Amino acid sequence: MLLSSAELDQMERRYRASFINSLGGFKSANLIGTADSDGHTNLAIMSSAVHLGAHPPLLLLIIRPDEAQRHTLSNILETGVYTINHVHEKFIDAAHQTAARYPKHVSEFAATGLTPFWQPGFEAPFVAEASIRMGLTLREHQRLAINGTHMVIGQITLVTVPEDCVSRDGSIDIARAGTVALSGLDSYHRPQPLRRMAYAKPDREPTPLDPSVMTRA
After folding, report:
1. Which sign does the torsion angle of CA 90, 134, 65, 35 carry?
2. Where are the alpha helices (DSSP H) in 66-200?
3. Which of 64, 85, 213, 216 has its CA 20 to 30 A from that of 149?
4. CA dist 122 to 42, 72, 125, 203, Å?
5. Where are the domains of the chain?
6. Is the CATH number of domain 22-214 2.30.110.10?
7. pLDDT tier, 199 (very low <50, low <70, confident <90, very high otherwise)
8. Residue 39 is inside which H or E element, if any?
9. Would you call 155 helix, strand, or coil by DSSP?
10. 3-class SS at 42?
11. pLDDT, tens digit, 9 for 90 and up, residues 79-123
């Protein structure tokens, strides 16, 4: 199948959205936890978290255009904090349901049966059921002129991760933690590690990483 730009433009809107969303490959599946200044909570599934830097530790989110009221974005801009929680295979159904457009007075936590978890001094809710949880502070926000999406950059200030999922070199075995991947708009996948590779150098052939590095810390 070879498609031109004109043929992509002619696709039915929802068909095109599913098609283009699938082209990006496997993506992270995360629940973004926020609250407004009155403490009303919100939870939304997103697949746009991207590593931006390790020092300081930054993650980037892309939030869709202002076609409808975006409770997540307004809460982030209002309070300056939010959480990113890996979707675990045990609560895929509940996580996916957070994509429904509930009114602002309805918390997705209550609607889906997920549990808000609060860290003292942090004004955004974590997902208690998640194995990997991060608290972030807003560092930068831009509305992108090209399509009206919002770029949100946050700095990681709190992390919860299972100790038995951290290797000696600091890498996290997210498959062991039960984290799932997302493709397209609605397909969830259990990741299966294949191999880790040693640092690439021009004078060395591709080399699998020494298994001792991958043992738990």
Report:
1. positive
2. 71-79, 92-97, 108-112
3. 85
4. 15, 16, 8, 48
5. 22-214
6. yes
7. confident
8. none
9. strand
10. strand
11. 999 999 999 999 999 999 999 989 888 999 999 999 999 999 999
Kindly write down the DSSP assignment for every residue of 87-112, as one continuous string. PBGGGHHHHHHTTS---TTS-HHHHH
SS3 189: strand
Least confident of 10-19, 143-152, 170-179, 203-212: 203-212
For residue 211, what pLDDT is reported? 64
pTM of the model: 0.91
Residue 178 CA to chain centroid, in angstroms?
A: 14
